[in-house]
Amino acid sequence: MKRILIVLFLFLSYSSFADAGYAYRFHLNLQSENKESISGFFYFYTYKKFNCGYNKSFKEFYEGKDEIILYSNIITLNVGTLILDVTHKDYKTKIKLSDFWRVDINEFVDFGNTDRLLELSTDELNLIKGNKPKSTSIYNKKYAENCSLILLTWNDNTELLEDKNEISEKIKSFEENITKYNDELNNYLRDKEKSLLNKDILLISHCDAL
């Protein structure tokens, strides 16, 4: 998954994801023929329901590309009613399943038709001081039907309402023709994302299935 950038094209690309089916987070243990082993988290969207009848063997269940992405480390956040995982690109590794003769499922989470994993920058990740940040969300149906912007902070003294209102009003001002003002809105949100980091505020997006 690409690093989250709060720009319009991100919303448009996500607006059609996870329209049906299942979404899982697997923690996998992999072992090669020469006894080398690795482990990590794999996020998988599928129309095939997983159940314990696969006896922990991932290869019995998996139907997809040979090359997958594993994340060696994630942080799980409770954001209101949402549960999100965040990570950094340094924790990401591409592997080929065919290089491993055994791939076992250590555990799995069924997280439904929603976005779960966010790949953050170092500065963004450094803001995280626990798994229950203070948060508020911004939703505009004309902007993105199934997506929201979310402001997060771990600083008890930081207020979010003023920035929420500013962003909401800015998006609303482009409602008449979002496509026409695409570049202007993108630039605003990029600049806003950077300025918020200086205030210990993280700006992310989250999408659900249509």
Described by strand count, sense and barrel closure, the largest sheet is: 3 strands, antiparallel
Helical content band: 10-25%
Domain count: 2
What class, by secondary structure content?
alpha+beta
CA-based gyration radius: 19 Å
Mean pLDDT score, rounded? 87
What gap, in angstroms, lies between the N and C termini? Answer: 19 Å
Summarize the helix and strand pattern as letters: HEEHEEEEEEHEEHHE
- The spatial strand order of the largest sheet comes to 2-1-7
How would you describe what is shown here?
By secondary structure, this protein is an alpha+beta fold. The chain has two domains: 95 residues, no CATH class; 99 residues, no CATH class. Helices cover 21% and strands 35% of the residues. It has a three-stranded antiparallel beta sheet, with no helix packed on it. It has a three-stranded mixed beta sheet with strand order 4-5-8. A hairpin with a 5-residue loop joins strand 1 and strand 2.
Report a brief summary of the structure:
With 210 residues, the protein is an alpha+beta fold.
